[in-house]
Design brief:
There is one protein chain. The protein has about 220 residues and is α+β, with helices and mostly antiparallel strands. Among the domains are: about 80 residues, Beta-grasp domain (Ubiquitin-like (UB roll)), CATH 3.10.20; about 80 residues, DNA polymerase, domain 1 (Orthogonal Bundle). Helix content is about 35%, strand content about 10%. The chain is built from seven helices and five strands; from the N terminus they run ααββαβββαααα. A five-stranded mixed beta sheet has the order 2-1-5-3-4, with helices on both faces. A hairpin with a 2-residue loop joins β1 and β2. This is (2Fe-2S)-binding protein. Pathway: Alkaloid degradation; nicotine degradation. GO terms for molecular function: 2 iron, 2 sulfur cluster binding; metal ion binding; oxidoreductase activity, acting on the aldehyde or oxo group of donors. Keywords: 2Fe-2S, Iron, Iron-sulfur, Metal-binding, Oxidoreductase. It holds the Pfam family Fer2_2.
Length: about 220
């Protein structure tokens, strides 16, 4: 096999007397481009709109907020909140009512159930700012005599039937049970299970929970 290179493949000889090339090197090109770009940006900042101050920048980054007035456990509240605040966070963090529990925070476990205008809702999925003028009842306001008064019949039934173990889901179970009774969905154990199915008990006290709801519905 011939190893001879063709004429076009052979590099031309370098003439020592020739003048150096005027084309910029790669390093010179990059340095020049960077410097010019920086000058253009700086000039734009100087000639254009000035940068925002710290207070203006903070105001621009602040989330939208609003005010809501609602009645919670018979007491009127007017609160300024972030528009994204859930009813659950309003109750726990703003109104200091920790009885309503944060479980999945996705509407799947029922631990955060409260009554809004007499209907049960998952407070973690309910925006607080949408409840203007609403009446909210939490586990703290369920007993007719208040925290130091007589218990609600369903609260008594939960104790009598031993319908809880760890107790984390119990406030939501009781609030949902009250709603279930008021809605008239207590015709049978099967109906109670169906209408209480949105409330999860990881301890598995379902039989006793159903029994407590049934007992209360019958007024025994």
């Amino acid at each position: 096999m011939s190893t001879e290179l063709t004429e076009s493949a052979v590099s031309p000889p370098i003439d020592p007397s020739a003048e150096p090339s005027s084309a910029p090197s790669r390093r010179t090109f990059i340095a020049t481009t960077t410097a010019v770009g920086g000058a253009v940006v700086a000039g734009g900042l100087i000639a254009g709109t000035p940068l925002l101050g710290a207070d203006e920048a903070a105001a621009a980054d602040a989330p939208p907020s609003g005010s809501v007035s609602l009645t919670v456990n018979g007491r009127r509240h007017t609160v300024a909140v972030d528009n994204r605040t859930s009813l659950l966070d309003l109750l726990r963090e703003h109104l200091e009512l920790p009885g309503t529990k944060k479980g999945c925070n996705a509407g799947a476990c029922g631990a955060c159930t409260v009554l809004v205008d007499g209907r049960r809702v998952n407070s973690c999925l309910t925006l607080a700012v949408r409840l203007e003028g609403a009446e909210v009842t939490t586990i703290e306001g369920l007993a007719p005599g208040g925290a130091d008064g007589e218990l609600h019949p369903l609260q008594k039934a939960f104790i009598e039937e031993d319908a809880f173990q760890c107790g984390y889901c119990t406030p939501g179970q009781i609030m949902s049970g009250v709603g279930c009774i008021e809605e008239g969905h207590t015709g049978s154990k099967e109906e109670i299970r169906e209408w209480m199915s949105g409330n999860i008990c990881r301890c598995g006290c379902y039989v006793k929970i159903v029994r407590a709801v049934e007992q209360t519905a019958r007024g025994k």
